[in-house]
Automatic annotation (TrEMBL):
InterPro entries: C2_dom (IPR000008), C2_domain_sf (IPR035892), Synaptotagmin (IPR001565). One of its GO terms (biological process) is vesicle fusion. Residues 100-109 have a biased composition (Low complexity). The keyword Acyltransferase does not apply. It comes from Cotesia congregata. Residues 170-290, 307-443 form the C2 domain. This is Similar to Syt11: Synaptotagmin-11 (Mus musculus).
Length: 447
């Protein structure tokens, strides 16, 4: 009976023993996996700490909003800009402005020699806060007057009002001083104040002023932002070194008054252009500060007085491929957009469907010309499902490029659409009725 139960039960066999080599292999594999995981974690932590350190260094030495820009005076090599804090109390500056603008190469400004510093004390009021490279290179210093003096009397001030009666001006006035030190080839400009600026929302404004030397458009400085005021008082000095007397007669001061906006592009209030040839015509004015007042004028006044010019374009409609070829040939008789009597024009082209922009192109900028020749061709693909050019139109914008302020629209031309009339309508109808033909025509630029 017992033998039968044993025969019918499960077959039980002893477990075979694991060899020593197998155990050693398993241990080595486990140790290798643990080492690989530890090495991976160590490399990850090291790389993370290195990335964080690199980001901290870049934030410590570079402004977050824009690259540092050096300021150059006419006919000279690059030099540096240094700006002192506000004398009227704490105030924020526009994005990208800091206590000091570093040089383009990232090096620190050079210290002045004792001899050169002592020679400049008469010009800078004893302030040695200067930046210098060599005697042949240009140096620029920006400083603030700590001792506020009253604006000079009307007998000593040269007051020129562009539009006559000050009550008629809606953009306010700019008060500033200029002084030229002939023995040091230094031009000092003091931005004193503005009065009667227009409100930019909530019946107030956050104004600041940019200054550049024309015609080069390369020497650029700016004041601090003063919050919630329409009558800002700056009293900030900007001193340009390396300006010879011959260059002085060709230079004009270009002041641009703007209202700072934290969340969008700063709004331009107006501008003032002052030629130095009329101010420093006599030698007795050298080494003496000259107080001036100018009305702030809108830039559009220059266009209104000169006209907007004409634009030559050529169009070709290809219904087989559903393409519209646009050739921007040239423009002529453009208005003078700066004191040099020239402009820096370029053209933007928009393709519209039912008055909605669906595509855009633009030409290259042509520098310093009132009669630019572009000769640039663009091909617009008409979307599928659109039959012909019935609901299609083209909009041409001719703009003036500017390094400092927003590019200004000189004029526009619209071909096609409900607002098309005159020669533009004739040109468009001819293009629609004559496919596969390149048809060109002149068009007057309008506002």
């Amino acid at each position: 009976m017992v033998d039968g139960l044993l025969e019918d039960g499960p077959l039980i066999r002893p477990v075979e023993s694991v060899s020593t080599n197998t155990l050693v292999g398993l241990c080595i594999a486990a140790i290798a996996a643990i080492c690989a995981a530890a090495m991976t974690w160590w490399l990850y932590r090291r790389r993370r700490e290195h990335t964080k350190l690199t980001m901290d260094k870049s934030l410590a030495f570079r402004p977050p909003h824009r690259k540092p820009t050096a300021v150059k005076s006419p006919g000279s090599t690059s030099h540096y800009l240094k700006k002192s804090p506000s004398p009227t109390g704490p105030a924020k500056s526009p994005p990208g402005s800091g206590g000091q603008t570093p040089s383009p190469t990232g090096s620190q400004p050079l210290q002045n020699s004792n001899n050169f510093s002592s020679q400049l004390k008469s010009l800078t009021g004893g302030n040695d806060n200067l930046v210098q490279k060599t005697s042949s290179e240009v140096t620029l210093t920006v400083e603030n007057e700590k001792d506020k003096a009253e604006f000079e009397s009307s007998e000593k001030a040269e007051r020129t009002l562009i539009n006559g009666d000050t009550n008629k001006n809606e953009l306010g006035q700019l008060f500033f001083k200029v002084r030229y030190q002939a023995d040091q080839n230094a031009l000092a400009v003091t931005v004193v104040k503005c009065t009667g600026l227009p409100a930019r929302g909530h019946q107030t404004s956050d104004p600041y002023i940019k200054l550049q030397l024309l015609p080069d458009k390369e020497d650029r400085v700016k004041t601090r932002v003063l919050r919630n005021t329409r009558d800002p008082v700056y009293d900030e000095d900007f001193t340009f070194f390396g300006v010879s007397q011959s260059q002085l007669q060709k230079i004009s001061l270009h002041f641009i008054v703007l209202s700072f906006d934290r969340y969008s592009r700063d709004a331009m209030i107006g501008e003032v252009i002052c030629s130095l040839s009329s101010i420093f015509g006599s030698e007795n004015m050298e080494n003496q500060p000259i107080s001036l007042c100018r009305e702030i004028c809108p830039r559009s006044l220059k266009i209104q007085s000169q006209g907007r010019g004409e634009l030559l374009v050529s169009l070709c409609w290809q219904p087989a491929t559903n393409r519209l070829t646009v050739v921007v040939l040239k423009a002529r008789n453009l208005p003078k957009m700066d004191v040099t009597g020239l402009a820096d024009p370029y053209v933007k082209i928009y393709l519209l469907y039912n008055s909605q922009r669906i595509a855009k192109k633009k030409t290259h900028t042509k520098k310093r010309t009132l009669h630019p020749v572009f000769n640039e061709s663009f091909v617009f693909e008409i979307p599928n499902g659109i039959d012909g050019l019935g609901n299609i139109s083209l909009e041409f914008l001719l703009l003036d490029w500017d390094r400092v302020t927003k590019n200004e629209v000189i004029g526009r031309v619209e071909l096609g659409g409900q607002k098309c009339e005159g020669t533009a309508l004739i040109h468009w109808n001819e293009v629609c009725s004559s496919p596969r033909r390149q048809i060109a025509d002149w068009h007057k630029l309008t506002e």
